[in-house]
Amino acid sequence: MTVLPAVTGLGTSPLSEGLRHARRAGPVLPVLLLVAMLALPVGASEGSGGTPADAVSGLVVVFCAVRLARRRERPLARTGLVVLGLPVVAVAVAALGAGSAANALDGLARYYQILVLVPAAVLLLVRDRRDFRLLAWALVALGLWQGAIGVHQYLTGTGASYAGEDIRAVGTFGATDVMGMSTVVAYGLVCAVALALGGETPRVRIAAGVCAVALVVPLALSFSRGAWIATAVACVLLIVLGGPRRALRLLAAAAAAAVVLVGGFGVGSSMLEERLSSITQVTAAPDQSVTDRYTMWAAAIDMWQERPATGVGLKNFPAYRDGHASIALSAGSDVAGAGAAYHRQPLLSPHNMYLLILSEQGLLSLCAIAGSWAALLVCGARRLATAHRGGRGLDCALIACGLLTWQLVDFVYSDIGGPSTVLTAVVFGLAAWWALSPAATGTAGKQ
Fold it and tell me: When comparing pLDDT for 251 and 45, which is higher?
């Protein structure tokens, strides 16, 4: 008699509960593992070599393919096939103009990984809004982890070099990928703001709000202008979509907090002000990094004008750069700090995704790829309006639209490169799930 309660109690033990939740979240666990891989140090290696996260992304795709084969499911509806198929055709055609077979294969693999295969796998492995929210919180947790490391780097002077001091927050990504931490933190911040605005319970909204406030600090200390701009646009959009009255209150509170922190306490005022003002400085004592970026933008446009339909060929921007750039372009950017010795890192892309596609693949490819992104945004926005009216899944709608908006704005200042790029594929997958999956608004996603 005394044994029965103990045996029965095993069914409700924390271990059994954890196993039950793990079994239920089984299909999405590989995607969670992919997100977790970005918490690990990536080393100081340069170039386009693969990372452990890239390897895990391949496993995610294989796992999804095996699961579909076993279940004999139709992978995508017609709309999904068209939206995700546009980049497939565009990049395949562009690869024909690559300078070498190695460039063609390398470019095909990278573009298909980030724009097609991993997003499709995420779309198919996320089954309902519970899975979606789990991934969103994983992005928040990753942002907090990387942000905590970045703040520690700033306070201890162990970050990447900036203005002669090793204070730039870069997380585990190192000085060779100064955009990595800012991207991860920004993803987490956008997810946290969306959950704070549309969370289903007060506890969720409060927790998400606290996380959002905490993530503002490492984002500022990353000194990443592109991430600042994209985050400001995405968060303001989310706040406005949350309702006009609440938007006025939140924007007023944010402005007041900024005045108190920067104006009253002088938190990072001089460096942040200098970094912000450098965005528009082109003629009057410009920041060299800004000059380099605008010079590479001009070179990319010049390449496209030379070959408007097809561009100069996949992965061929570095080979054509010097022939189209002005003498204002420097030989490379300075890299130092965060465990890396001082060296010059060559500038091999225009740091603008749209201009990179335009210069290497031409106008036809840009229209196809950007058209795919625009379709995701339009479909996601339509479902967001439905979520507003029905009151179901508003947090998922805000997360998907906020992340996609952030990415499309940030692409004006960045492209697909670096260890954190694999997370961009996960973001596209989340946006695709909300925009295209029947489970996003149907009864399957009612959880």
Answer: 251
Query: In which region does residue 51 sit, left (phi positive, over 0), alpha (psi from -120 to 50) or beta (all else)?
Result: beta
* pLDDT value, residue 446: 43
Q: What is the pLDDT of residues 296-339, one digit of tens each?
A: 999 999 999 999 988 998 999 998 988 888 887 876 777 777 77
3-state secondary structure of 213: helix
How far apart CA 387 and CA 396 sit, in angstroms, is: 9
CB contact at 8 A, 99 and 316: yes
Radius of gyration of the chain (CA): 23
Single pTM value for the model: 0.89
Q: Which helix (H) or strand (E) holds 248?
A: helix 244-258
351-362 burial: b if 16+ Cβ within 10 Å, else e:
bbbbbbbbbbbb
DSSP-assigned letter for residue 345: E
Write the burial class of residue 336 (CB in 10 Å: 0-12 exposed, 13-18 middle, 19+ buried). middle
- Under 8 Å CB-to-CB from 354, ≥6 apart: which residues? 366, 370, 411, 412
Q: How far apart are CA 141 and CA 147, in angstroms?
A: 10
* DSSP one-letter code for 264: I
One-letter amino acid for residue 91 of the chain: V
Instruction: Name 168's bridge partners.
Output: 160
More confidently predicted of 325 and 84:
84
Mean pLDDT, to the nearest integer, of 265-275? 54
200, 394 contact by CB (below 8 A): no
Pairing of strands 165-168, 340-345: unpaired
Instruction: Identify the bridge partners of residue 165 per DSSP, sorted by sequence position.
Output: 162
Q: What is the pLDDT of residue 5?
A: 47
Tell me the average pLDDT across 227-240: 92
370 CB neighbour count, 10 Å cutoff: 19
DSSP letters for 118-141: HHHHHHHH--SHHHHHHHHHHHHH
Residue-level length of the chain = 447
Of 422, 404, 442, 428, nearest in space to 194 by CA: 404
Q: What is the DSSP string of 277-329?
A: HTTS-SSSS--HHHHHHHHHHHHHHHHHHHSTTT-S-TT-HHHHHHHHS-TTS
pLDDT at 1 over 70: no
